[in-house]
Amino acid sequence: MKEQILALALAAAGGAADQTLLESLCLAAERAWLDRLREGLTAADCGEALPCAAAFTAAADLAAGEGVASFSAGDVSVSLESGGDRTRRAERLRQAAEWLMEPYVRAAGLWAQGVEG
Hints:
The structure is a single chain. The chain has one domain (2-101). α3 runs antiparallel to α4 (83-101). The protein has a two-stranded antiparallel ribbon with strand order 1-2. It has 117 residues and is mostly helical. 56% of the residues lie in helices and 7% in strands. β1 and β2 form a beta hairpin. It contains four helices and two strands, in the order αααββα. The chain has helices at residues 2-12, 19-36, 49-65, 83-101, and strands spanning 70-73, 76-79.
């Protein structure tokens, strides 16, 4: 599944990503999703949702960490998306990952039940 997640993450990241960094982010994302699985569920129960969600999460983490706005090499100049664009793209990828995994995972965040206010 590792290779599948990396291939999907490279596609989601636009293909020009640092593969070594993205591979580490993919492993971390897969582990995070596996840790959130509902009691009694396995990776196999999630079908294609798990590799897609892990890839989207890794691509989102990569997008959130990108900091270069533009660079030049000789006569070639490249401009990347702005920080706001990267943040929006990362959030959309995270939302898609959550949507894919919703049937299989415990809710993220802090929930309090029976706490008097």
